[in-house]
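Why do we care about 3D structure at all? Because function follows from shape, and shape follows, mostly, from sequence. That is the central idea of this module. The next example makes it concrete: a single protein chain, its amino acid sequence, and then its structure expressed as tokens.
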Amino acid sequence: DWLKSNYTLIVNKTDKPIKILINAVNITELIRAKEKYRLFKNYSLISKHHTLANFYFNLSTNQCTNKEINKNVDPNLFDTSSIDNFFISLSKLFVLEGKNQEFLQTYNRENLIKMYKKGNTNFSCEQKISMEHSIPKWRFFAIDIMENPDTKNIEAFFYIRDIDQKITLNQTINKLIQSDYEIIGL
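And the structure:
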């Protein structure tokens, strides 16, 4: 266990020490929380190299505190003036009917805070979106949520990955399997 100690020296009228008061507090949980938070921050730094875009949110203050967007993605697609505005701007890129409202039921600031307090720290989904009037492609969205042990703010790391080839390949294989072929080869 980790202990934090405070010492108070008590002196008499002639400044001669006569007692020492020691107050110790167990800070093991705080140390564990700080280590978990450090790993959370490191994970976000490492995973940004495999994503199209990363956004760091402070859910408590309703701010996008950091963003990194791949050079092939237009940063103007995302409204980062507030967290809900960000999710709304992202959902407008969805091409499948009705998926944006389904997405916004989970991905909104109030719901994410509420779900975090219930113990849910990760959410993810796959959506087909069109960026900059391009051919719609499949993207993977994920958010990891954690409390900052120093500020007690609830923070989140949201990222977007390209999964178009993976989804397209799976769909092609499934269509081939459903067909009446005797031999299939890749």
